[in-house]
């Protein structure tokens, strides 16, 4: 799960824009009387999920959707292994879905997601539909550095030009390793497999300048309260800081893109309705709705969200972005996480 907590950043007009008809509604299956349970991590994002996806899906199909939160991985595994699945659809970061495709999740026809407009680069397995796209970006105090702003990840490590504290969310999948290697001169096409020795050696150079936040929301707080001058932060969190009055800007080159996915739980007793839901959230209108509500990006290239200028300014820049390799992370997360924790304690 990439964004357990998200600040609502849209205008009233943007919220109202999500309630109209969609192409899916014209060809929606009749699921009257059917019910599905969506396993979700909870938090403030839940209301947005209901508004953008759950309620419109119910209106379009006649099905009923209930949300069960939180959605711990251990509970998912226990349900599948026991053959007593209560959940039907589940959301997590794409690397977890990829790691467990065919094991904890059912394989589905992902060509329908592509046909709906989902960018093929976000189709990284045969189980999940990509939804919220998050950019990990280099954010900085615009007032402090307005005369000579940072331009690349290398500047994040330049303590002479850019002294001061750097905020980073305490998780190895925030792009911290990719950032370090890009800053150290590794070309994008040579980024994976990640050279862990090289990445941690580079991080050693700024280790005592890092302010670790224990939640994504802590990044917003650190920027708003001027606790740091620089941050490796989720794009939506930077947008939230700007809306709260912080003078922040982002480096637009080589933003690191990650994404969440929804998938059908292995052994679901409501497969038809679950698959219909996945196809529904792949649609341009539903994808755009989440952008309007969260200031995170859509995986659908045909989605055209209506957002205010400030939110639009902080949306990910896909053209020059670096796509996080979900396959590599699916295979290596446990090892990397152990190494990350050990490095922090040294």
UniProtKB/TrEMBL annotation:
Among SUPFAM superfamilies, the record links this protein to: Periplasmic binding protein-like II
> What range does the record give for the signal peptide?
1-25
Claim: Nuclease is one of the keywords in the record: no
Key words, A-Z: Signal
The protein's matches in InterPro entries, at most eight in alphabetical order, are given as: SBP (IPR006059)
Task: Note the Pfam families from the entry.
Answer: SBP_bac_8
- Protein name from the UniProt record: Extracellular solute-binding protein
Question: What organism is the protein native to?
Answer: Paraburkholderia piptadeniae
């Amino acid at each position: 799960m990439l964004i357990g907590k998200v600040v609502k950043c849209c205008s009233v007009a943007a919220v109202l824009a999500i309630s109209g008809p969609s192409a899916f509604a014209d060809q929606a299956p009749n699921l009257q009387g059917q019910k599905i349970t969506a396993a979700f991590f909870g938090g403030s994002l839940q209301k947005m999920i209901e508004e953008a996806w759950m309620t419109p899906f119910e209106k379009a199909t006649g099905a009923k959707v209930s949300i069960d939160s939180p959605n711990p991985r251990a509970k998912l595994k226990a349900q599948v292994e026991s053959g007593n699945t209560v959940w039907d659809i589940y959301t997590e970061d794409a690397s977890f879905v990829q790691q467990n495709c065919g094991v904890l999740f059912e394989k589905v026809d992902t060509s329908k997601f592509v046909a709906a407009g989902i960018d093929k680069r976000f189709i990284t397995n045969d189980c999940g539909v990509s939804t919220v796209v998050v950019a990990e970006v280099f954010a900085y105090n615009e007032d402090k550095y307005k005369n000579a702003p940072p331009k690349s990840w290398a500047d994040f490590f330049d303590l002479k030009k850019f002294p001061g504290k750097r905020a980073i969310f305490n998780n190895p999948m925030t792009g911290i390793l990719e950032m370090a290697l890009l800053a150290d001169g590794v070309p994008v096409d040579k980024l994976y497999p990640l050279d862990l020795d090289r990445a941690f050696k580079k991080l050693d150079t700024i280790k005592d300048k890092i302010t670790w936040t224990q939640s994504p929301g802590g990044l917003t707080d650190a920027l708003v309260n001027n606790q740091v001058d620089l941050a490796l932060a989720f794009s939506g969190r930077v947008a939230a800081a700007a809306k709260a009055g912080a003078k922040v800007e982002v480096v637009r080159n080589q933003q690191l893109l990650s994404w969440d996915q929804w998938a059908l739980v292995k052994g679901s007793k409501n497969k038809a309705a679950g698959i219909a839901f996945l196809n529904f959230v792949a649609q341009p209108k539903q994808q755009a709705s989440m952008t309007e509500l969260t200031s995170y990006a859509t995986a659908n290239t045909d989605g055209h969200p209506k957002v205010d200028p400030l939110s639009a300014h902080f949306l990910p820049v896909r053209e020059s972005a670096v796509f996080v390799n979900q396959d590599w992370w699916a295979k290596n997360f446990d090892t990397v996480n152990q190494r990350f924790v050990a490095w922090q304690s040294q």
